Amino acid sequence: MSEKCEEYKLDDFKFCIPSSWKNQKAGSYDSKVLLFVNKKDSIFINNIDINIVENIILVNSEKEKKDLQEFSQNEISKDEIMIYKNKDFDYSHAVFYKNYYYYDTINGINVLLVFPKKNKGTIGAFFNKNVAGSKFSIYCNNPSEETKEDFKTIFRSVYYQN
What we know:
This protein is of the alpha+beta class. It is built from three helices and twelve strands. It has helices at 62-71, 87-92, 145-157; strands at 5-10, 13-18, 22-24, 33-37, 42-46, 57-59, 81-83, 99-106, 109-116, 122-127, 136-141, 159-160. The strands form three sheets. It has a seven-stranded antiparallel β-sheet, with helices on one face. A three-stranded antiparallel β-sheet has the order 1-2-12. It has a two-stranded parallel sheet with strand order 6-7. 18% of the residues lie in helices and 38% in strands.
């Protein structure tokens, strides 16, 4: 990222956000939340645990999928129900998840990284329950390609200081 960035601090975490992103006020009662927006996307940053579990409904056949939709009176969309091709393999390899998940370290901090498999999904870094008990999450849903590039630099800028 060649553009300038502005440094921010949330609890014990410091990070840098590109100047093209505008800081918006975000209200919260029991946590600290920062919201940054650009032309297309929003970045959420906070100090709480975030539930990133993907709830995918898996069935064995097209008939089972149709029956489930009818039973739910179409409250469950057809896109939320997936049909197994190879049940054991699909389940064990998270074939139907929208995102890739993996653990890594950024500047000495353990982190769960999330990246979208296709154009829809979440990009994020979840620094949860480090040694001092501090939490820090930064994420964006359905990011543009430009935002994905910005995130790589934002991730590298995160530091923990106590």
